[in-house]
Amino acid sequence: MILFNTNHLKAYNYIIHHFLELEIFNGDEYIDIGDKLEIILPKYLFREQYHKCIKIFEELFRWTEDEFYHNMGAFHELALYNFVNYLADMREDVEEFDNIYFDDKCHSLIKEASQSDFNEYDDMSLEEYKDNYYNVFYYSDYLFEETDFLLIDKLYNSRKLGNTNLEEYFGINMDFYYDILPLDIQSEYKSNYITLSGEVSGMLNYIGHRLNFGNLYKLFWENNTPVKEERIQLILENIMDAYFYNQEIDITREALLGNGKVDFKLYRNKKEDEKVLIEIKRASSSYLKKGYEKQLTDYMLSTNYKNAFYLIACFTDSEFEKAEQFIRNHVYTDTIQLYINISILDLRKRKTASVS
To answer: How far is the C-alpha of 90 from the C-alpha of 135, rounded, in Å?
Structure first.
């Protein structure tokens, strides 16, 4: 299940999955999937990363079907955005679109979601709410919090000419969009422009992979009990020391900043844009909201650091759901919190495969 910014995850995920099944993964042996994607995706992506394009659509198809929460990367966002707009254009041309692309379950989920919207907001008629779910043109507004990926060419070209004002003003991290850059630019960008913030994002992705597909999570449990925040810090400190070994990145734990201590301060080459703060809170902490809205923001203001990561450690399903809801409820537009990246440390126990 893709974690869209909506209260109706089940409805939108099923509808998108059904669209993908009908239009892309319909089992028609006479139509190559690539032929469809060539129409939907930017030509440079399809030409240079053909196999990844297929992989991304396969992931969207699987993710919209299962019950796990999935966060989209830049490639997923661009692919889904283009797919939705492709269908929106088709709906304008195909008179029977709604009868073809919405099945009985779609109708049922739309009826339930629109009734819920009507009961909560009551600023339109029930039929108008229903129409919004059938009008695929609106999906790009409902499913995407930001569409910075549409500006990737302009942002990169401006940066190439030495102007980063636009990305700084809107708090856009170009590293997030690395995968959708042309391959020749990826090579150049990787050698010259990957920021410390991007390196930290890469490290967190690595940790997430080891938590999900390895046994790293076991370090965060002791005698069947979650470890304290101090132990979480110690484990992460050792992981960071190893991950950033020989990269001239200084890591300071419990760094004194302003009126308090931040969990981690990282910097490289002593450049202003090469400094990152990391603060960790357990999802169960009563200071979860304050740590984000007040504590970390104050640290950034007092030190003039531009980038920070707020890590939420989750040990149970309820804590994970709380963290997901926290992220959905804390999308800010001020110039400080645009630079705070909220990430989840999923430390829940994994089921191990039984030995037959």
So the answer is: 11
